[in-house]
UniProtKB/TrEMBL annotation, chain A:
Superkingdom, natural source: Eukaryota
Keyword Repeat: yes
PANTHER family membership: INTEGRATOR COMPLEX SUBUNIT 4
Name by which UniProt lists this protein: Integrator complex subunit 4
Domain Integrator complex subunit 4/Protein SIEL C-terminal Ig-like intervals: 824-961
Family label: Belongs to the Integrator subunit 4 family.
Lineage: Eukaryota, Metazoa, Chordata, Craniata, Vertebrata
Chain's gene name: LOC111154473
Position of the signal peptide: none
InterPro entries: ARM-like, ARM-type_fold, INTS4_8HBD, INTS4_C
Keyword Signal: no
Keyword annotations: Acetylation, Cytoplasm, Isopeptide bond, Nucleus, Repeat, Ubl conjugation
Major location category of this protein: cytoplasm
GO biological process, one term: snRNA processing
Localization per Swiss-Prot or TrEMBL: Cytoplasm; Nucleus
From TrEMBL, chain B:
Organism of derivation: Enhydra lutris kenyoni
Keyword Protease: no
Cofactor: Zn(2+)
Gene name tied to this protein: LOC111154616
Subcellular location: Cytoplasm; Nucleus
Protein name from the UniProt record: Integrator complex subunit 11
A GO cellular-component term linked to this record: integrator complex
Span of the signal peptide: none
Spans traversing the lipid bilayer: none
Domain Beta-Casp, residue spans: 245-363
GO molecular function terms listed in the Swiss-Prot or TrEMBL record: hydrolase activity; metal ion binding; RNA endonuclease activity
Lineage, broadest ranks: Eukaryota, Metazoa, Chordata, Craniata, Vertebrata
Subunit text: Component of the Integrator complex, composed of core subunits INTS1, INTS2, INTS3, INTS4, INTS5, INTS6, INTS7, INTS8, INTS9/RC74, INTS10, INTS11/CPSF3L, INTS12, INTS13, INTS14 and INTS15. The core complex associates with protein phosphatase 2A subunits PPP2CA and PPP2R1A, to form the Integrator-PP2A (INTAC) complex. INTS11 is part of the RNA endonuclease subcomplex, composed of INTS4, INTS9, INTS11 and inositol hexakisphosphate (InsP6). Interacts with WDR73; interaction is required for the assembly of the RNA endonuclease subcomplex in the cytoplasm.
Amino acid sequence: MAAHLKKRVYEEFTKVVQQQQEEIATKKLRLTKPSKSAALHIDLCKATSPADALQYLLQFARKPVEAESVEGVVRILLEHYYKENDPSVRLKIASLLGLLSKTAGFSPDCIMDDAINILQNEKSHQVLAQLLDTLLAIGTKLPENQAIQMRLVDVACKHLTDTSHGVRNKCLQLLGNLGSLEKSVTKDGEGLAVRDVQKIIGDYFSDQDPRVRTAAIKAMLQLHERGLKLHQTIYNQACKLLSDDYEQVRSAAVQLIWVVSQLYPESIVPIPSSNEEIRLVDDAFGKICHMVSDGSWVVRVQAAKLLGSMEQVSSHFLEQTLDKKLMSDLRRKRTAHERAKELYSSGEFSTGRKWGDDAPKEEIDTGAVNLIESGACGAFVHGLEDEMYEVRIAAVEALCMLAQSSPSFAEKCLDFLVDMFNDEIEEVRLQSIHTMRKISNNITLREDQLDTVLAVLEDSSRDIREALHELLCCTNVSTKEGIHLALVELLKNLTKYPTDRDSIWKCLKFLGSRHPTLVLPLVPELLSTHPFFDTAEPDMDDPAYIAVLVLIFNAAKTCPTMPALFSDHTFRHYAYLRDSLSHLVPALRLPGRKLVSSAVSPSIMPHEDPSHQFLQQSLERVYSLQHLDPQGTQELLELTIRDLQRLGELQSELAGVADFSATYLRCQLLLIKALQEKLWNVAAPLYLKQSDLASAAAKQIMEETYKMEFMYSGVENKQVVIIHHMRLQAKALQLIVTARTTRGVDPLFGMCEKFLQEVDFFQRCFIADLPHLQDSFVDKLLDLMPRLMTSKPVEVVKILQTMLRQSTFLHLPLPEQIHKASATIIEPAGESDNPLRFTSGLVVALDVDATLEHVQDPQSTVKVQVLYPDGQAQMIHPKPADFRNPGPGRHRLITQVYLSHTAWTEPCQVEVRLLLAYNSSSRIPKSPWIEGGEVSPQVETSIEGTIPFSKSVKVYIMPKPARR
Amino acid sequence: MPEIRVTPLGAGQDVGRSCILVSIAGKNVMLDCGMHMGFNDDRRFPDFSYITRSGRLTDFLDCVIISHFHLDHCGALPYFSEMVGYDGPIYMTHPTQAICPILLEDYRKIAVDKKGEANFFTSQMIKDCMKKVVAVHLHQTVQVDDELEIKAYYAGHVLGAAMFQIKVGSESVVYTGDYNMTPDRHLGAAWIDRCRPNLLITESTYATTIRDSKRCRERDFLKKVHEAVERGGKVLIPVFALGRAQELCILLETFWERMNLKAPIYFSTGLTEKANHYYKLFITWTNQKIRKTFVQRNMFEFKHIKAFDRAFADNPGPMVVFATPGMLHAGQSLQIFRKWAGNEKNMVIMPGYCVQGTVGHKILSGQRKLEMEGRQVLEVKMQVEYMSFSAHADAKGIMQLVGQVEPEGVLLVHGEAKKMEFLKQKIEQELRVSCYMPANGETVTLPTSPSIPVGISLGLLKREMAQGLLPDAKKPRLLHGTLIMKDSNFRLVSSEQALKELGLAEHQLRFTCRVHLHDPRKEQETALRVYSHLKSVLKDHCVQHLPDGSVTVESILIQAAAHSEDPGTKVLLVSWTYQDEELGSYLTSLLKKGLPQAPS
């Protein structure tokens, strides 16, 4: 289109033969658009002073410009640019040119010449920088055009010697984004010399302005990101920059070194001042480690983060990071960790240390001690005790990543991680617990370490405790004393914080099933059985006793000798718990009893699970039987829906799929039912009442489709198409029903147009998927689209109606992994009889604690709704920080909801529930113009609708009138 | 020759009595004015008579800088200013200014009231002395006079500890005082920018130690206290009032908070309470966590730590008590210790070093039966623990700071000579920086080469810029110009302008040189050969053969003439102007080597 318009600009001296149809299209556009450029032109001509002109331009920038009129606007802007003397106006014009060239659907190659042209005559440095920015925008818009890129690179090289840092910055940015190394371009590059972009950028590593140095490094990184292989020679240059005076330079240099080390891990570099050589990645690792003790915390964070991703580093280098090479008074000293380990391995326990216990032993040769050049030495020790918690978190994360790739390192870093459990900032503690959990399959905790870990169980923060429970779920403990210790501490935790009950039980379940042999010798003690005497039967409702039983039963599952140690009441309790807490107590093979649960044990499960087969079969049955008579179809659908729902309840892992398909079938069923209505056969005036069912069906289908689209995680594009298709059908149904029930044609016009827009939108969004929708409603609809556009509403309705009836039932492909979003409100529990009293008009804070499962991006979608008895509803947006992420697919919302109301005479219940907000327009890509302009981002946050997805909880509250 | 002179009056190869004299560009500055803990006679204060044999100190010293409030850095201040007599400014940070008089007063009380010393400074003297103090903020550049300026940097160590940069013109010295490179529970790590001073004067208490991570120690400490409290025992922690005490308090306070513990923690009253008050006030001097959270809650407003009363010691149940003094030699801590020593459930934790002869030292070295006054024998059944918490930089930290500052020289003070030796060697080896460690009274002289600013005319700068295009900012560039010194300011201008300004005519200076060449051919031919030779060698210069038979290279003229006596030898006359000296001398040397054998 742009090219076409370009022709129009030079229409006077070119003859263009155009097809009639196209002519109409352009005419239509011209009817609405040219006002924009014309208005701008008039405005700019009117402007008497630069300030005026600037105002006009600013106003102009607030409104988006369509792709078709960009060209005209650009011409006017350029024209004005040549005339303008004031640099600030030129600057604005230059920035507008950049913005305009980003407009989708506009090809900016036509304005490039002009832009380069004005660049050559420009004197102001700021305007120059802005123009280069514009060129960058143009260049990135045309990634295919090599000649243009070459030309732009040329321009950038020319301006690199500018005295202003801003211009040099932009030039380097341009080089970074557009420069290439490929030699093949030269032949059509007509006289443009091949430039070694890396060399040019590299020269600016030693620029006098730190901003330019930073820009040069960033440009180099940009080259790397674009897939160009950086030369190894850059490594030495970058190393020099590590001692730069400016933190942003150092920070960028660290990144560059990291990049090079990933590119050439195995090449050999010499160690200065010695003849030795080491691998580049090791050298880089040492250098980055050194930066962990940099003066600026920004650099420290950067360095600590990058350390984590250097996996190829040799293990002895890696292990050095944890060793500070302690010495005291020139004698080698062992770390507290080493001492603890020795104490442990010698079988002694620390009985309170004597003074001088840590007295250093061996003498150190003074010459051999190296105080700074020791490279990696103790980098993590420094990082973990840094002043800024950002650095500490980064260090913990890096430890985690390195430990995941190296088991021996995992073993070594354990002590340090355990120490971090004592950090002053909760975030750091939490992070280190999570880290420990992630590497837990690589490690086995020693008893003294376990001791420290368990000490944290008394932490008053719930997050910390639960994270620790999670950690204990997957830790390996080495001894039976360890298990005992863990159990004792967990029980202590249980008495101190009874709310942790569920989490502790779950933790013990895993602890038991992981360590059956360690639990076995503990059983008599734990159950307090006696070889000769019967002991008193413990209280069955005691959570602590249940906790012990959970541990034992789970251990007994893989340890058949254990049940022999149980006393009678234990078996009774087993039967009770197996029923009441079936998720915690596994089925046991008990002597003299038949197996309580069915024979399906997970270990002998065939890979094609029968329930999954059943699901597949029942769905296939539905899809294949679509040509049955309506009555039969309905019955089959109803039957299948029932089956699926039951299946979902039985098999939790299939619940998502089953529910999802059931919902889809329900939509279909509703649609069929609605179309079966008698109303279609009766004359219009008679069925006013009955149409309720059809319109209700349409409404319900809409709701269900929103649920399908937004409540399930793992929905792929192919499902979204089907869902949208279903919604389109519902909309069509709605249109038809309205057409039938309302009198007069006027309201129909609007509805029809809206519907056609929806169809158009559907087509635009899912153009790639249309081939899959053969024979469907939308397929037919699109065939008839030209006709529909021109038809009258009544006809449209008629066509729709027949099409809706003829349309076939689309097969819904099942996604791999699908889970229904669900939420459970843990707190408030809604059982309290004591109303929450507060003075009316003031606020009261209600703690809300909920677990969310399979919610994507809960920070923006999950809302809390409060329903007051008078029907007033209030929606509350929790803060992003209120969401925690304890595990994959799970989230935890802990927030405070502020309630307020005018006085009541009696305490009353308010309902609290969670909503899932959705916005279906979020799929539409945003235009760059809006991003760049001053339009507020309200569009993105707007909520189209909400789906309740948790049970509502009733809270008793009592606003009292204020006392005067 | 300009130089920097440094003379330690105290703390030279020693710990205690920090007092260092620095002369820099004609300014005299005294860094710290401390007392020595180990002496009770005249040696406890620095020998101020060294500074000026006679005459007033005020005339000689431009200013005094106090780095932090520890007595070995500020203890001699009232003596110095009031009794010896100094009226100039004394610089210190705000927290130091606030806390310093409390400690001085306490020190005075012990010396005068307890030991009965006469001729000691009085309370009034402390007050008068503090009136001379000028408080500075971190990173604030204070202009002491027209030339001398000082700037404070954060040093960790204790509340308000600072490092100072002393600068005169382009010469500067950085004095660290005591500092800590690893943050602790209430203070951050020392930080200084890369100011590249001529000299860095650093403490070196832990010159030969690389310390273990702080976390292990903290964890051990907390675990021990927790265990003791859980089994119902009482924990006694003898501390000195300031510094470590606050760190331990914060540590325990947060632990109590986290673990929801209920056992009471007490803090002995008096001096400490006042000090805590200042910690509460100077929140900006603490670490990140405390600074960030004080809006919700000031960490020094302890929830669990309450003031101690004598009667509480007999209360049943577990408790933790912080009591002064730290070495169990007297006072409240000893009283409590005597009460609790008999019970094996109880525990005493010594958080620091104990001097020989104190009860603290005895129990730490394992003595279980103590002889108290009045022939009483006290049997110690309680557990005795030692935990070292120290806030000095270790060897690695010192090296790190030196690396951060990038000084030309390092001077070590505040440490033992033997240990300094090691560090000195390391600094010289690894950082390639000269290092000094003078003893008390010994003077180190450091020659400096101060840079002198010269103004350059824009025209000249632009002209020279235009000649070289490559940006190599860090390399020196040769520049031709004329330096004009007039009324003690310097300007660099182009020679034309200089001539014009001075009203002088330009003189041409030409060098001529004769080169003998053995060449039997005619002059013209020789000239031609010279021409072709030069043309081939000097590719990027303009070489011309003029019609009169002479050859020019740029502005250098070469003429060939026959030798008057020997016709077989030709004489080449080379003549160049002073400006082309480089090329001219190169040409002569080239010609002296002879011409290549012509292809005949």
